[in-house]
Amino acid sequence: MSEAHALRRWLGSGLEAVHRSRGRLDAINVFPVADSDTGTNVYLTLQEGNRAIARLPADASHRDVVAAFARGALMGARGNSGVIVSQYLSALLREIDDAKGLDSVDAGGIARALASAAEAAYAAVSTPVEGTILTVARAAARAATDVAEQGGTREEAIVGAADAARAGLARTTDELPSAKEAGVVDAGAAALVLQLDMLAETIAGSEALAERPEVAWELPGRGHRVVQPGHPGHGLEHGGAFEVMFVADAEEEGRPPIAEALEALGDSVTVTAGHGLLHAHVHTDHPDRAVAVAAGAQAHQIVVRSIAMSVVADRAATGVVALTRCPGLAEPLADAGAVVLVVPDPSLMRKRDLSRAVRDASGAEAIVAAGDPALVAVARALAEKRGRPRLVVIDAAHEAQVVAAVAASSLATPGEDVAGLMEAAAAATVVAESTGDALDDDLDRIVTPDTEVVTLVLARGVDDAVAESARASVAARAPDADLVIYEGGQEWPPILVGVESVPA
Hints:
With 504 residues, this protein is of the alpha/beta class. Helices cover 51% and strands 16% of the residues.
């Protein structure tokens, strides 16, 4: 039997425990915002860690399994809770590995592992809040330390930690204002308790917690009231409406400046580093600025989502993924319901980055609209190999077509062919590029009296006077047309143009 057998068994059972409770965890998610995705985020995070393990040979060493899980979970971490859980488990696993594995660790080793994990969880968060996953992590560590100092066994240490975690979970209802208002426990804390329960069963036996009282996640006799997403759900005056996540190739020393930059833009900031990777998360009203921070770190997997739209998203329904080179388009595309993957340099696009965005968008089917031929090529290559969620790539390769297609998807009614609507919108959008010097001539060539909408996407540094010039040119050719101008922030070309007209 492999030396890492017990470790694999624990991590697999932790994933399954969250999978079984995913819907309930999503339902009680009220902190930091009520966006109903804590269960999904933690599940997808753990799934990436376990997938990394699955790629190892059966006889892989304990250290190899630890490294694979930690890197996979960090790469695939979703949301505030997912980032914290990935950091917590990575730190715990390092200590367990130093103690020669789960089969060898003693009570003192368990106590040290849980203490190190709790410290890592606190360090991941820019503004720690008690009554959350952090409080439960610390309670478990203290309980294990008490058992170890009293000469208890390893089984007693981990069971004591699990008991303390459950008790801490029960207290989150009173300690966390948003949880108290909703009549629930903290969802992230509940997800961590599931991991510690499975660890206790792995070390102390499947019946180790059978006689221990479980914690109700909702107050009995009180249907919980979910706090609405957005600013009120944060409990902070600067809470943001968009979630921005990214991964960069960086070491620990790169973490503080990224955290400082994101803290100036919003809240729910978590920035973690390990195994040569940095993972960052923020809720902000300025997604373009957060994307700029990511681009400055040469990040990949720059994902932007509307928090309000994610609340109403049905993972069994069709989702929409927008791929764009333009940081400034992240906000309007996310507002229209898309999961947005910002790729400033299309040549660096990786299938893995797109795969993550697809899983964020839907568990069943995702439709991809891409604003550059190189991005389209990566999407089509991934679509040929995917099982679920199924991937549909629409025929578009220009940023203005992406804008039109995503706007069409936002107007779809239940039962409509969303991909068909998006295809039609993209096909009906005549596109062009302009250096700006000849913009009036460029518009005159493609704007007709039947034009309904003209979209301009401006590169970084383009003079504002261009907008006024374009407005006059469009008004002369199509007086009833709407002119929509986005500060796209792309490097080139200076102006991307899209024209939508009434069908002939």
